[in-house]
Amino acid sequence: MNITIHASFLPQDDPEAALAFYRDALGFEVRNDVGQGKIRWITVGPADQPDTSIVLAPPSVNPGLTDDERRIIAEMMAKGTYAMLLLATPDLDATFERLQASAAEVVQEPTEQPYGVRDCAFRDPAGNMIRIQELR
């Protein structure tokens, strides 16, 4: 079997703030931007990895969600417990400095973890936890 990860979804509730983080701070290219106003699906990804994408999607437009579920999702996003993304880079310090300069919310500075990786963590504008590991 030959299966690859083509796209993964992360919630976003402010398309312009999401673009500022993923395009401007992380340097991802925008591959698609559909919808209007706050109801937009924005597909981004690393320029050198055209087959791997992240779709930044409005979390509450699914017609199958109840009002209670929408409220719970909004609460979890605000706490940063709804979604997470793990990225990797060969130069963690430079990546950390770039994100810190963009005013992204720092959760953890570059740290050697007891389980053998060096990483840092940020929250994106929607509250998603973004962890970045250093490639070794």
Our Rg estimate from Cα atoms comes to 15 Å
Let me know the largest β-sheet.
4 strands, mixed
Q: What is the helix fraction of residues, given as a range?
A: 25-40%
Estimate the global geometry from the Cα principal axes.
Answer: globular
Strand content of the residues, in percent?
35-45%
Please tell me the overall pLDDT: 94
- Total beta-strand segments: 8
Which class do the helix and strand fractions yield? alpha/beta
The parts where pLDDT drops under 50 for at least 5 residues are none
SS element count, helices: 3
Spatial order of strands in the largest sheet: 1-4-3-2
Give the distance, in angstroms, between the N- and C-terminal Cα atoms: 28 Å
Reading the helices and strands in chain order gives: EHEEEHEHEEE
Structural description of this entry:
This protein is 25% helix and 38% strand. With 136 residues, the chain is of the alpha/beta class. The protein has a four-stranded mixed beta sheet, with helices on one face. Strands 5-8-7-6 form a four-stranded mixed beta sheet, with helices on one face. A hairpin with a 7-residue loop joins strand 3 and strand 4 (53-57). The protein starts with 6 loop residues before the first strand and ends with a strand. The model has no long low-confidence stretch (mean pLDDT 94).
